[in-house]
Design a protein that fits this description.
about 375 residues; alpha+beta; 7-stranded mixed sheet; two-stranded antiparallel sheet; about 25% helix
Length: about 375
C-alpha cells in the first residue's frame, strides 16, 4: 500500500509524502494552519445566525465612539469668547457690569459736536454720574490730555515737557485737590503762579479776603462751602486737554481747556434725594517766560487769561464758593442763559467781566 491516498483514490509516492511531512514540521510559509478551538467555536456560532456574514476571528473592529457635536460647538464658542475678552476687555467687562457703553478716547483737539444725549436718569450715591456723558469720561487727572513735547522758543523739548507737567499739576491742585474743594486756600496751586505778576497776586489777595466781581476765587479755583455742600463718591470726572505754542518774547504759551464734573449733595443729607452735578469748564492761558526777558521765578508761570462756564454752581453775588442750588435755590438756577455743559465744541464763553449771569444747564 502506498504512503498516502488522494481524495480521488490515487496514491502519493513515498517521496511526496515524505516531503509533505518535513514541510509541515518545519512550518513552511504556505502550509495550512489549524485554527484554535475558540476560533472554531466562534465561527460555528456565527454560521448559526441567519443573515449574518461570519467575521474572521482576528478581524474584530471596535465600535467608533459617537461624536459629541454639542460639546464641540460649545467649546468652539467658549474659545471665541475668550479671544474677544483678551482683545477688548473693557467693553465686555462693562457689558457684564451693567453698562452699555465704553470709555471715550482721550481728547486731543476741540470736538466738532456735543456728545449724544443720554437717557434721563437720576444720579445716585452709588452711581453719581448716571445718565450723564461724564459716566464715560476719565477720572481726575487722567481726563486731561497732555500733548507730546517739542522745543519751543527758549525751551528745549525736555523743558517743555516739564512745563506741561507742571501746568497739569496746577489744574489738579486748583480743581481736584480735596482740601481745596472743601473750601481751603489753594496754596499748592498758588505757589505755581509767578509771584512777580502783581495784578494776579493782587487779585488773589482780594479774592480770598473779600470776593466780588472780578475778584472771585472761582475764576481759577473750584471750592465748595463745607456747611452747604459735600462731594458724593470718591471721583471727579474730567475731560480736556493742554495745547501749546510760542508766545511773546519766545515764551512757551500753554492753553488749558478742561471741564470738571462734581457730583454733590447737601452737606447735611445722606440719601439720594438731592444729588446733582455742578459742572465747571475753564480755559486758562499760561505763559512760561524766559527769565532773561521777564522777571519770574523758576518753575512758575504767568497767567495770561482766564475764562469759565458754570452750571448748577450758584447765581448772584460771588461768595468765593460754588453753591449748588439745592431745594428752593433750584428756581434761581432756572433763570440763566441755556448752556449744554457737556458741549466742548464751542469756545468757553464766560470771563471775569461776566457779572452775575450764570448758565442754565440743558442737561446735567
Amino acid at each position: 500500500m502506498g504512503a498516502g491516498t488522494e481524495p480521488d483514490g490515487s496514491s502519493r509516492s513515498d517521496e511526496e509524502w515524505e516531503r509533505f511531512l518535513s514541510e509541515s514540521v518545519a512550518g513552511a510559509g504556505d502550509a495550512p494552519k489549524e485554527p484554535s478551538a475558540r476560533a472554531r467555536d466562534v465561527a460555528k456560532r456565527l454560521r448559526a445566525e441567519p443573515g449574518r456574514e461570519p467575521e474572521g476571528w482576528r478581524t474584530y473592529t471596535p465600535a467608533r465612539p459617537k461624536r459629541r457635536k454639542g460639546w464641540y460647538i460649545a467649546g468652539f464658542i467658549a474659545s471665541l469668547v475668550l479671544l474677544v475678552v483678551a482683545l477688548a476687555p473693557g467693553p465686555i467687562v462693562g457689558l457684564f457690569a451693567g453698562t452699555d457703553s465704553s470709555p471715550v478716547e482721550a481728547e486731543t483737539s476741540r470736538p466738532t459736536e456735543a456728545p449724544p444725549a443720554e437717557a434721563a436718569l437720576r444720579p445716585t450715591a452709588d452711581e453719581p454720574f448716571r445718565g450723564s456723558p461724564a459716566a464715560d469720561w476719565a477720572s481726575e487727572a487722567a481726563g486731561i490730555t497732555v500733548p507730546e513735547a517739542a522745543a519751543v522758543g527758549w525751551m528745549s523739548a525736555a523743558e517743555v515737557e516739564q512745563a506741561l507737567s507742571r501746568s497739569r499739576n496746577f489744574l489738579v491742585a486748583s480743581g481736584l485737590d480735596r482740601k481745596v474743594l472743601r473750601g481751603e486756600r489753594p496754596e499748592t496751586a498758588i505757589a505755581l503762579i509767578n509771584p512777580h505778576q502783581k495784578d494776579v497776586q493782587d487779585l488773589l489777595d482780594t479774592a480770598f479776603r473779600t470776593p466780588g466781581e472780578g475778584s472771585d476765587p472761582l475764576l481759577l479755583f473750584s471750592r465748595f462751602q463745607p456747611s452747604q455742600a459735600r462731594l458724593v463718591g470718591d471721583v471727579v470726572k474730567t475731560r480736556g486737554r493742554l495745547s501749546y505754542r510760542e508766545g511773546k518774547r519766545g515764551a512757551l504759551q500753554v492753553t488749558a481747556d478742561v471741564t470738571y464734573v462734581y457730583p454733590v449733595a447737601p452737606a447735611d443729607s445722606g440719601g439720594d434725594d438731592e444729588i446733582m452735578r455742578t459742572i465747571v469748564r475753564r480755559e486758562l492761558v499760561l505763559s512760561w517766560d524766559d527769565p532773561d526777558k521777564v522777571i519770574t521765578e523758576p518753575g512758575t508761570f504767568s497767567v495770561v487769561s482766564y475764562k469759565y462756564d458754570m452750571t448748577k454752581g450758584g447765581c448772584g453775588a460771588p461768595t468765593g464758593y460754588l453753591t449748588p442750588p439745592f431745594g428752593s435755590g433750584h428756581r434761581a438756577d432756572l433763570a440763566g442763559t441755556e448752556l449744554d455743559p457737556y458741549d466742548r465744541s464751542t469756545p468757553v464763553g464766560r470771563d471775569e467781566s461776566a457779572g452775575d449771569e450764570c448758565g442754565r444747564a440743558t442737561r446735567s
